[in-house]
């Protein structure tokens, strides 16, 4: 079986720090190689894979800002589509744009829908509903207008995370510094709980950081920048809980699964995929307000960190994700 895995070209695959779609594309590619699938990863030239790499640029447009994102995307997608006949299947991890080629090629395309940036993109998915094979990353992140082959949860390499039985006495916010992710709400939860909060992540909204976050920083609330894989493992594992007070219907939430793989429970606002990721009162708490989250912080000690690890490793491992996709590949190819 010859499969092309199409990753985005914003960041390296796998990413150095931020890049959830690139991370999932990498995990799929590497897992399939282990299964004996002949994989070609279409990604940036500095990407790392045990399969074959095909690239039209050395670095992603977020890492080399001299490049035009749209131009890079057009060159990248067309590069794969012009070689479509060399593959049995194309696995698209790059949103809706590659679908516009799918009516011009014979190779079937399976698309992992990593979330909808806006409802305005749904007409493209609808146009290719009958010939596309769509996979959602959570049951909550589905459009009633589309047909789905399956839901496959994002899978993480469990070896990248270390279970830690005895945490330190701090709460953690881990993610983009942006209103959607609830960084300011996490600060309010920590203040009202009288607990130390560490904030890690890239600043995605400079204005939000300057106006809402920076004025709050002090000895109790500390911003430590973005965290690469080694720092991430340590930060997540040593936290007494991850705070995830999101302000949008998040399609998945990688940091939630990552925290639980370290044994760290998650206190999240009950939106989007959170009820699918978190077992309420067992691997964390699903809450609706800052005050409910504060009450949940006082109950962290009731949870077993082994329950968090067991749940996450059974539901969100690379092996499970790759097995699920492999079955879908076989189903599509008959």
CATH homology superfamily of the largest domain: Glycogen Phosphorylase B
Helix content: 25-40%
The biggest sheet amounts to: 7 strands, parallel
Text of the CATH class of the largest domain = Alpha Beta
**SSE-based structural type:** alpha/beta
Count of distinct strands: 13
Q: In angstroms, what is the radius of gyration?
A: 20 Å
| Spatial strand arrangement across the major sheet | 3-2-1-4-5-6-7
Q: Give the SSE order as H and E letters.
A: EHEEHEEHEEEHEHEHEHEHEHHH
Low-confidence stretches: none
Taken from the alpha-carbon principal axes, the silhouette is globular
C-alpha end-to-end distance: 12 Å
What is the residue-mean pLDDT, rounded to a whole number? 96
- Return the domain count: 2
The CATH topology of the largest domain is what? Rossmann fold
Proportion of strand residues: 15-25%
CATH architecture of the largest domain: 3-Layer(aba) Sandwich
Number of helices: 11
Short key terms for the protein model shown above:
334 residues, alpha/beta, Rossmann fold, 2 domains, seven-stranded parallel beta sheet, six-stranded parallel beta sheet, 13 strands, globular
Describe the model.
Helices cover 33% and strands 16% of the residues. The chain starts with a strand and ends with a helix. The mean pLDDT is 96. It is built from 11 helices and 13 strands.
Compact overview of the structure:
This protein has 334 residues and is an alpha/beta fold.
Topology of this structure?
Blueprint (H helix, E strand, L loop, with lengths): L1 E5 L13 H15 L3 E5 L9 E3 L14 H13 L7 E4 L16 E5 L8 H6 L5 E4 L13 E2 L18 E5 L8 H11 L2 E5 L5 H8 L7 E3 L5 H10 L2 E4 L9 H8 L4 E4 L4 H4 L6 E4 L2 H8 L7 H11 L2 H16 L1
Parallel strand pairs: 1-2, 1-4, 2-3, 4-5, 5-6, 6-7, 8-9, 8-11, 9-10, 11-12, 12-13
Helix pairs in contact: 1-11, 4-9, 7-10
């Amino acid at each position: 079986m010859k499969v092309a895995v199409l990753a985005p070209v914003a960041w390296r695959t796998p990413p150095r720090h931020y890049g959830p779609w690139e991370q999932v594309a990498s995990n799929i590619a590497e897992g399939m190689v282990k299964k004996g699938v002949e994989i070609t990863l279409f990604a940036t030239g500095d990407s790392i894979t045990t399969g074959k790499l095909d690239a039209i640029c050395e670095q992603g447009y977020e890492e080399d800002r001299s490049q035009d994102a749209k131009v890079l995307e057009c060159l990248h997608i067309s590069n794969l589509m012009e070689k479509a006949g060399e593959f049995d299947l194309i696995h698209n991890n790059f949103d809706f744009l590659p679908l516009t080629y799918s009516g011009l090629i014979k190779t079937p395309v399976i698309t992992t829908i990593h979330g909808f940036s806006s409802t305005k993109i749904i007409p493209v998915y609808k146009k290719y509903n009958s010939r596309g094979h769509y996979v959602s990353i959570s049951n909550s992140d589905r459009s009633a207008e589309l047909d789905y082959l399956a839901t496959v949860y994002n899978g993480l390499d469990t070896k990248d995370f270390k279970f830690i039985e005895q945490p330190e006495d701090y709460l953690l916010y881990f993610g983009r510094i942006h209103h959607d992710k609830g960084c300011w709400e996490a600060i309010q939860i920590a203040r009202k709980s009288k607990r130390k909060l560490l904030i890690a992540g890239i600043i995605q909204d400079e204005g939000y950081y300057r106006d809402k976050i920076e004025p709050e920083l002090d000895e109790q609330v500390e911003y430590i920048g973005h965290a690469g894989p080694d720092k991430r493992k340590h930060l997540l594992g040593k936290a007494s809980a991850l705070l995830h007070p999101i302000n949008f219907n998040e399609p998945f939430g990688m940091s939630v699964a990552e925290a639980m793989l370290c044994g760290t429970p998650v206190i999240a606002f009950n939106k989007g995929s959170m009820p699918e990721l978190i077992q309420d009162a067992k691997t964390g708490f699903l809450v609706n307000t800052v005050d409910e989250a504060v009450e949940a912080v006082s109950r962290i000690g009731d949870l077993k960190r082994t329950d968090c690890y067991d749940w996450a490793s059974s539901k969100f491992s690379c092996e499970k994700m790759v097995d699920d996709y492999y079955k879908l590949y076989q189903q599509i190819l008959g």
